[in-house]
Amino acid sequence: MLKWIIYAMVVIAFMDTFVQLPVMPLYAQLLGAGLFLTAVVTSAYSFANMLGNFGAGWCIGQIGRRNAIFFGLLLAAVGVFGYSIANDAYTLLAIRLIHGLGMAVVVPAAFSYLAELAPPSERGKQMAKSGIAIAVAALLGPMLGGIILDKLTVYHLFYIMSSLLIVTAFVVRKVLPATPVAQEDRSVNIPSLLRRPNLLMAYVAAFILLFAKGTMAFALPLAAQANGLSGTSIGILFSAFAAVAILVFVTPLSRISDKIGRQVPLLIGMIIVMFAMGGLAWATTLTSMVVMMVIYGFGFGILFPAATATVVDNSDDGERSAAFGLFYGMFSLGVVLGPLATGYFTRWGIDPFIFASIFVFVMTTSLFLLFRDIFTTRTIGFESKG
Predict the structure, then answer these.
(1) Domain ranges within the chain, ordered by starting residue
(2) Which of 142, 151, 173, 209 has the smallest set of CB atoms within 10 Å of its CB?
(3) Which residues cross the membrane (predicted)?
(4) Cα(83)–Cα(343) distance, rounded to whole angstroms?
């Protein structure tokens, strides 16, 4: 029962992000942002989220997981409501930072709860289930955001989401068990985590996956609008990848890293993401864009369970909040740098999806060459700390 409550909370936490994907770039431009400032506003949430993720282990160690989730959700709700009263792009930028900081401790704390419920031989399967929660949010969020944008107003979207976050915060406070404040989490040696090759590989893979996702968050709504697609169609594009990811998560493919090791699924997932980014550069119709998002969703579905299971494999109980904080910090770093880098290079007429595809290729190749020995070795178990 506890597991399903945590899954539901993860859905809502990620829906808070995904529901705004079709909205935020357009809302920033409505408030007067140019193309690059739009990219900055889009990235601001993830920038603050990244900084908070890196400190999540310490924060959770101070106040406990349940309190971290409760106060994080409340601060995020304040941020979402604040969007409705922003009167210019710079105010919106500041509020995005508050929103991102609030959510920074929520996901690492939730995944620490889930990790304790998974036996070592089923970690890939367990992390796939958490991936289903994220994918459900990614499926429903953009679609709901697009529909609300078409049928009501952007302000209704902000009111609905802030209310949902407040309700979730108090449900969590009531239902989740209190956890002891972990002394280990207060004193985790972050450099020690980063010196573990398997962990570092998972972090880089997470960065690559979300660099592509961040590029889509910035460029896809603008490309779709330029091709005459509606807000609902933009939502469908983001939901398409989530639907495919869910299909992967609920099939035996989600458990492949439990059987053959974590490394090969990581590599395959990154290659698929690279091809999806390149394909989006040439897609000009709803159908062709959906096909590319389906391909991205397949790559996401292969990569995510392997990466998160790697984090669980290579951290002990006292380190896990910090290890997941770093993992989701790399998620956020990818979402930050994706829009910023691609938005910057659009000034020279470089297609954002082409740039992202080349970047993913370079990073994937570098990762393979750097960790060639790991990629050719089947490793599932816990890696000794260094």
Answers:
(1) 2-173+187-375
(2) 151
(3) 5-24, 68-86, 92-115, 127-149, 155-176, 197-220, 232-252, 264-283, 289-312, 324-346, 352-371
(4) 22
Q: How far apart, in whole angstroms, are the C-alpha atoms of residue 99 and residue 94?
A: 9
Cβ count within 10 A of residue 190: 16
Q: What is the mean pLDDT of residues 341-347?
A: 82
Residue type, 281: A
Q: Which residues contact 80 (CB under 8 A, 6 or more apart)?
A: 16, 99, 158, 161, 162, 165
What is the pTM assigned to this prediction? Answer: 0.71
Q: How large is the average pLDDT for residues 23-47? A: 84
- Give the number of other CB atoms < 10 A from CB of residue 166: 17
Sequence-ordered list of residues with C-beta below 8 angstroms from that of 71, at least 6 positions apart, any chain: 63, 105, 169
d(CA 109, CA 324): 8
- Other CB atoms within a 10 A radius of the CB of residue 104 amount to 28
Using alpha carbons, list the distances in angstroms from residue 164 to 77, 117, 119, 175, 328. 8, 26, 32, 16, 23
What number is the average pLDDT over the span 110-131?
Answer: 68
Phi/psi zone of residue 23: left (φ > 0), alpha (ψ -120 to 50 degrees), beta? alpha
- Look at the block and give the residue holding tokens 């890939």: 124
End-to-end CA, the chain: 36
Structure confidence at residue 383 as a pLDDT band (50, 70, 90): very low
DSSP 382: P
Percent of the chain's residues with pLDDT above 70? 87
- The per-residue pLDDT for 120 is 60
- Tokens 């091809």 found at: 275
CA atoms within 13 A on the CB side of 106: 32
How does pLDDT run across 267-324, given as a tens digit for each residue? 888 999 999 999 998 888 889 999 999 999 999 888 888 888 888 888 776 777 778 8
Angle (CA) 321 325 327, round 5° = 120
